[in-house]
Amino acid sequence: MNHIHVIHENAAWLEPLAAALDRQALPWRDWFFDRGVFDLSQPPPEGVFYNRMSASSHTRGHRFAAELTAAVLAWLEGHGRRVVNGSRALDLEISKVRQHAALEAASIRTPDTVLVAGKELLLTAARRHFAAGAFILKPNRGGKGLGVRLFYTVDALGDYIDGLDYEPPVDGLYLLQEYIRAPVPLITRAEFVGGRFMYAVEVDTSDGFELCPADACAVGDAACPATEGPRAKFTIVDDIDAGLKRRYEAFLSANGIDVAGIEFVTDRAGAVFTYDVNTNTNYNPDAEARAGRSGMETLARYLGAELEHVSRRRDAAD
Q: Whole-model pTM?
């Protein structure tokens, strides 16, 4: 029997998808990628392979999980296996610089961005490019918004990089990025499954930029009310601008990305800036419960349809 093979390194993030796959009675296997042995002289198993490797894997003690995944994806793709979010998706997941280049190539507007290699060069670069306004420091390889910090002055950046809270990027590369000031502290994350728009989520950024939907709304988190009181941190909206949606879908198709969350912000003049593509997307259960939606159920159905297609093709070949 063919299976859906889920490649990942975070068991907690897998649980909602595992439950959805089980509810739909789909045959699947857990491929936990931290270490392993793979005989490259043999063909891989049959089936559909869903890559959920995260850019933040190193923060969970899995420093080389992404590199291992890249190697195994090359093996799978070399044998013609169906890989959902294949090598190109992983490449963009682990590099915000390459994301930026891909978005620019697709004529999707991005914030002004400066690449810096070397902690000692950060202040000089910030003074040259962002002395007149607020800017964001982020690691090239991040995930979950980790290491993303907003500074209003270059001196504040200096205090941070000389302080105890300083976090070096795992690959040694930093991005200094223009801060887009929205009329209200909100960003929007558009979710796509099978390369097609599913829904969008408005995210309240009042408390910072660590915005992973799977983590931020925990029990006891005052920033995540249920249905009454202050605005919920995550709120599902059914649609986004039609032109933007078309550009995003074309971008995903051109880059071989099947499943993603694309984040954008709208400034006070109404201009839209896209700044992040997350190919290991998670969905917020509280927001989905309020909206009567389920991203994981949609994703499971998509993976099931891909598996059926692979199985039919194999049967026809036999």
A: 0.91
